[in-house]
TrEMBL record:
EC number(s) reported in the record: 1.-.-.-
Keyword entries, A-Z: Oxidoreductase
Protein name: TIGR03557 family F420-dependent LLM class oxidoreductase
MF GO annotations: oxidoreductase activity
Gene3D superfamilies in the record: Luciferase-like domain
Pfam families with a match to the protein in the record: Bac_luciferase
Domain Luciferase-like intervals: 10-291
CDD domains: Tetrahydromethanopterin_reductase
Length: 318
């Protein structure tokens, strides 16, 4: 059966609202929830970007059942992978082993703030491979020293570590990243309904869950939903190769000047009808994804959760 997740967009909601939204999602029957991990929103209209790891600690204590994960954390620049290993182990303990660590190679928007520059994609992927080795080694209690091209460990040890290592899930935008996920993590996460990503992961030996984020905007009408989606999510139409490279919110504003509400509506289902949203979601299920994370765009989370309870969840779990 497909597992259903709820996306906590830390760029669109303050920390206290994120915790309240999560509690509502748990009550509504979501299986898991995934929080973004940014230092900046994509566009100024979003208006938020709290520290995900502090919020995760609060979430672990405010809920009882729902799974928690990052979607996704970049353990390459702002964070050293050893610090993320410690953070993940702590959240896993606080949540009673309900935590999964979603990882990716990051975006310049969030990582350039430390002032060390933004390397090319080949270096970023090489760094990610080393980071995965460190994270797996520390969380598994098997590594204390590491000497790589980009990262080092010196007598590292996690003193508070869960009995079962935290699962690692790797974001993939192409087959190479999907194969890396199969080799060095426990699952795959993507944002496009691309069957070839799941196939590359499975063919490379990946046997874990395949997560997909699906954006939508439940609203009183299709036009109203498109307006909301345009205000808060037009940045997503730039595509991942561009999204990874733009340095600040002003860049995303300039890059999306040509984007209309109708264009955003072609990418994210909008409006009050469950049928339209189910059609969009089913594209990901048909592509082979078995963990679907639903991301309601904009402030009206209650309208979305009510539709999820009433129509979306029963249809998807049938």
């Amino acid at each position: 059966m497909v597992k259903l997740g709820y996306k906590l967009m830390a760029e669109e909601h303050g920390p206290a609202d994120l915790v309240r939204n999560l509690q509502r999602a748990e009550a509504a029957g979501f299986d898991l929830a995934a929080i973004s991990d940014h230092i900046s929103p994509w566009v100024e209209e979003q208006g938020h970007s709290s520290f995900a790891w502090t919020v995760l600690g609060a979430m672990a204590q405010a809920t009882q059942r729902i799974g928690l994960m990052t979607a996704v954390t970049c353990p390459l620049f702002r964070y050293h992978p050893a610090i993320i290993a410690q953070a993940a182990a702590t959240v896993a303990l606080l949540s009673g082993d309900r935590f999964t660590l979603g990882l990716g190679a990051g975006e310049r928007l969030n990582e350039h703030v430390i002032g060390t520059g933004w390397p090319g994609v080949l270096e970023r992927h090489a760094r990610l491979s080393e980071a995965l080795d460190i994270l797996g080694g520390l969380l598994g209690g098997e590594m204390t020293h590491y000497e790589g091209k980009y990262y080092r460990l010196d007598h590292a040890k996690l003193y508070d570590r869960p009995a079962h290592p935290v699962p690692l899930v790797l974001a993939a935008g192409g087959p190479d990243a999907a194969r890396l996920a199969a080799k060095k993590s426990h699952g795959l996460i993507a944002t496009e309904p691309r069957k070839e990503l799941v196939e590359a992961y499975r063919q490379a030996g990946g046997s874990g869950p395949c997560y997909a984020e699906v954006s939508l905007c439940v609203a009183e009408s299709e036009a109203a939903g498109q307006e909301v989606a345009h205000r808060y999510a037009r940045w997503s139409l730039t595509g991942w190769p561009v999204m990874a490279e733009l340095p600040h919110t002003e860049s995303f504003a300039a890059a999306t000047e040509h984007v209309t509400p109708e264009m955003v509506g072609q990418q994210a289902s909008c409006g009050p009808k469950a049928e339209a949203h189910l059609k969009s979601i089913n594209r990901f299920i048909e592509a082979g994804f078995d963990h679907i994370i639903l991301s309601q765009i904009g402030p009206d989370q209650e309208r979305f959760i009510a539709l999820f309870e009433r129509e979306l969840a029963p249809a998807l779990r049938r």
